[in-house]
Model the fold of this input.
Amino acid sequence: MQVNSCRSAVLDAVEALPALERETLALVFYRGMSCDEVAATMKTTVDVVRDRLHEGSRTLLAGVGGGL
Done:
């Protein structure tokens, strides 16, 4: 039961992220792409990709970090 509630909390937090942060996190963590590959795919710079990763990760940790 506890695993399902944690999974649900993480999924809710991911869905609440801005679309570009969510997509960036998915490409890096689920597809295993590098920042360079993500930048080329999303037609942006590596610095923007890193910023989105940082902000998205920070938001996720703030949203579910205390509950896990």
About this structure: Residues 24 and 53 are 7 Å apart (CA to CA). The chain has a mean pLDDT of 90.
